[in-house]
UniProtKB/TrEMBL annotation:
Annotated signal peptide: 1-36
Pfam families: Lactamase_B
InterPro entries given in the database record: Metallo-B-lactamas, RibonucZ/Hydroxyglut_hydro, TAT_signal
Sequence intervals crossing the membrane: none
Domain Metallo-beta-lactamase per the UniProt entry, residue ranges: 67-237
Organism whose genome encodes this protein: Cognatiyoonia koreensis
The keyword Metal-binding appears for this protein: no
The protein's name: Glyoxylase, beta-lactamase superfamily II
Domain of life: Bacteria
Keywords on record: Signal
């Protein structure tokens, strides 16, 4: 794979950003071409591969924004774009990646309600994002009540209908999963290439957000684990991976749920998770545990 250089209302209830990004957010809600090179935010990375005549480009934002991703699927004559990242500098890098292909965006989607995946949408000129109606309404409430501006190119977009379709003659399936990491998740599957863009159903090497229903989240991943439609996973935080990461995610969510159920305090829960996953990054996501604490 190639790797070229290229907030807060209730802590956003599952948005992924570091404390450094939260500080940067206060001054970074307008485009700044120099910001990514100024030292305030390092550049992201791009990871590429091809399967079955289709190209896949995954943009991974820098660690200060918890390695949130945007994916570009490259067909013969057009692109499928999944998510916009969070900050203006990272969204500008996604725009540059789109331009580098020399192909138009035929379809752009937002995978779920959390602002780290749609906050950069206004920076991606000329692209209108489609999504599930349920996601749009959740996103609208978040945008109107938050600090991120109104992403008109998402709110004015069209509806995605779950099921099979085609792009450039290649089968593409849109799936709607409910009540997992987010209230709604739009997953994109390319069965001929055996690639699934699962976004925040799976994190790779990054601490998970607490989720809205961890029991159902585990059940969903167990069902996906038995699904023969994909071997490669493009995730919402971190590098592309394989279906084996589903087992890792299931185990992680069980540890997360046990810690949030049985620990005496949020800090105790955080300590348990860090002890179980010492190699993971994205400490800001662990701070969200206090916002979900119900005892």
């Amino acid at each position: 794979m190639e790797t070229p250089m290229i907030s807060r209302r209730n802590l956003l209830k599952g948005t992924a950003l570091t404390l450094g990004a939260a500080s940067l957010l206060r001054t970074a809600l307008t485009p700044s071409a120099a910001l990514a090179q100024s030292g305030d935010m390092p550049p992201g990375t791009v990871h590429r591969f091809s399967k079955g005549g289709v190209g896949f480009h995954t943009y991974v934002s820098p660690a200060m924004t918890v390695n949130v991703t945007s994916h570009i699927v490259e067909f013969d004559d057009q692109l499928l774009l999944v998510d916009a990242t969070f900050m203006p500098p990272t969204a500008q890098e996604v725009s540059a990646l789109i331009a580098s292909t020399g192909k138009p965006v035929g379809q752009a989607i937002i995978s779920h309600e959390h602002p780290d995946h749609w906050g950069g949408a206004p920076m991606i000129d000329g692209v209108t994002f489609n999504t599930l109606p349920e996601i749009r309404e959740g996103l609208r409430a978040e945008a109107e009540g938050g600090q991120f501006g109104i992403p008109t190119n998402v709110l004015d977009g069209g509806d995605i209908a779950p099921g099979m379709t085609e792009m450039s003659g290649v089968p593409v399936e849109f799936r709607h999963y409910r009540d997992n990491e987010a209230p709604h998740m739009l997953v994109t599957v390319l069965p001929e290439q055996q690639v699934a863009i699962v976004q925040d159903l799976v994190y790779n090497g990054i601490f998970f957000a607490p989720g809205v229903n961890r029991t159902n989240w585990i059940t969903t991943l167990e069902e996906m684990r038995d699904d023969p439609a994909f071997e490669t996973l493009l995730v919402g935080h971190g590098l592309p991976t394989t279906r084996g990461e589903l087992d890792t995610a299931i185990a992680y969510i069980k540890v997360l749920d046990d810690a949030m159920t049985n620990a005496a305090t949020p800090d105790d829960a955080i300590a348990q998770i860090k002890a179980a996953y010492p190699g993971y990054s994205g400490d800001f996501l662990l701070s969200l545990i206090a916002e979900y604490w119900s005892r």
